[in-house]
Amino acid sequence: MKVILLKDVKNVGKKDQVVEVSDGYARNFLFRQNLAVIASSKSLDDLKENQNQEKARLDALKAEAVELKKKMEHVSLTFTLKTGKEGKTFGSISNKQISEALDQLGYKIDKRKITSEVIASLGMHKVNIELHKEVIVTINVAVKEE
Fold first, then answer.
1. Does one domain contain both 40 and 86?
2. Nearest CA among 121, 70, 113 for reference residue 91
3. Are 79 and 23 in a shared domain?
4. Which of 38, 58, 93, 109 could potentially form a cystine with 119 if both were Cys, beta carbons 3.0 to 4.6 Å apart?
5. Chain centroid to CA 37: how far?
6. Are 90 and 54 found together in one domain?
7. Distances (CA, A) of 140 to 66, 85, 126
8. Are residues 59 and 7 in the same domain?
9. What is the pLDDT along the chain (146 residues), one digit of tens a residue?
10. What's the pLDDT score for residue 37?
């Protein structure tokens, strides 16, 4: 029997996949657990429409991320750190601080999207921000002596 999976099922398939399973397995397990529906022409049409809507939504998110990247390419942040003798710094600049500084500039960026090491030295640093899986922007972070 051909069924459309509503959720991932171990050793059977992934969500929205059309698979062939035995009649008993479909009736006694997949249908009762609401893990699948029969692959009728109506349900296949619904599946195709849902996939098209999801693709359009993902394309819109990517386009939004590209627009944000264009705006953020020239962003430069400046932080200060206390320094001791011989230029040793006390403290560091974290992703949370970078996120808060971007928030003050009007960019809502989650600190988990910032992919950089903790900045603990003076000078210019490049910080990558993942706006989308395929869209990454690099901003400059300057760390100066207090």
1. no
2. 121
3. no
4. 93
5. 30
6. no
7. 18, 26, 5
8. yes
9. 999 999 999 999 999 999 999 999 999 999 999 999 999 999 999 999 999 999 999 999 999 999 999 999 889 999 999 888 877 888 899 999 999 999 999 999 999 999 888 888 889 999 999 999 999 999 999 999 88
10. 94
Give me 7's structure tokens: 């959720």
Tokens coding 119: 């900045």
Same domain, 97 and 44: no
Query: Residue 135: which CATH number?
Result: 3.10.430.100
Residue 45: predicted pLDDT? 93
Q: What is the pTM of this model?
A: 0.71
Domain limits for position 56 = 2-63
Per-residue H/E/C for the chain: CEEEECCCECCCECCCCEEECCHHHHHHHHCCCCCEEECCHHHHHHHHHHHHHHHHHHHHHHHHHHHHHHHHCCCEEEEEEEECHHHCEECCECHHHHHHHHHHCCCCCCHHHEECCCECCCEEEEEEEEEECCEEEEEEEEEEEC
* 43 and 74 within one domain: no
C-alpha distance from residue 51 to each of 3, 14, 48, 132, 134 (Å): 16, 14, 5, 20, 20
